[in-house]
Amino acid sequence: MSEPDVVLALQQPWVSVDNDDSATSPEGILGADHPHPRAYGTYPRILAKYVREEGKLSLPDAIRKFTAFPAQREHLADRGVIKQGMWADLVVFDPAAIHAVATYDTPNRLSIGMSYVLVNGVPVVEEGRMTGALPGHVIRGPGYARP
Fold it and tell me: Is the CB of residue 89 less than 8 Å from the CB of residue 36?
C-alpha cells in the first residue's frame, strides 16, 4: 500500500486495526521463527508514527481502533473496554516513548515504551520484560466449526 492510502484508511472512522501475523515469542523455540516485523510492531508503529510524530490520528482514536471497535465488530461483548466484569487485557505504555524496533533483519524484538501487558489480568510483560505467564486462551468466533 502507498503511504497516502495507509493514512487515508487509518483516518476512516469505520476502519479498525488488526495484525495478521503470528504471535510468536522472541524467546525459546518460537524465537527461531523469522516473522514480518509487524508481528511485534504494528500497534507501536501506529502510535509512534501516525499519532505522535505526524498527528494523522488522535491517541483516543487509535486506542479505539485497537480495542473497543474490533471487539464490537467481532461481537466480543466482554472485551475491548476497561470496565468491571470485563476481561482485563491491558497495555500500559508511555505515549511519548513507544516505538517499534523490529526490523526485517531482526524481527523478534519487543517494542520500546510498553511497561506492562496484561492478558486476562495477568502480567505477561512486566517492566518491559516477558514474565513467562501464559494466561490467554483461544477465542473462537461464530464461524468456527469443530473438526
Answer: no
Quote the DSSP letter at residue 101.
Answer: -
**Span 40-63, pLDDT tens digits:** 899 999 999 999 999 999 999 999
* Domain of 16, in residue numbers: 3-20+28-130
Number of domains in the chain: 1
Identify which of 79, 68, 81, 92 has the alpha carbon closest to the alpha carbon of residue 17. 68
Q: Determine, yes or no, domain membership for 145.
A: no
Lowest mean pLDDT among 9-13, 17-21, 41-45, 68-72: 17-21
How many Å from the N-terminal Cα to the C-terminal Cα in the chain? 36
CA pair distance 8, 97, nearest whole angstrom: 25
Angstrom distance (rounded) from CA 118 to CA 67: 14
In whole angstroms, how large is the CA radius of gyration of the chain? 16
Does any domain span residue 40?
A: yes
Burial 66-104 (b: 16+ CB within 10 A, else e): bbbbbbeeeeeeebbeeeeeebebebebeeeebebbbee
The stretch 72-77 carries a mean pLDDT of 90
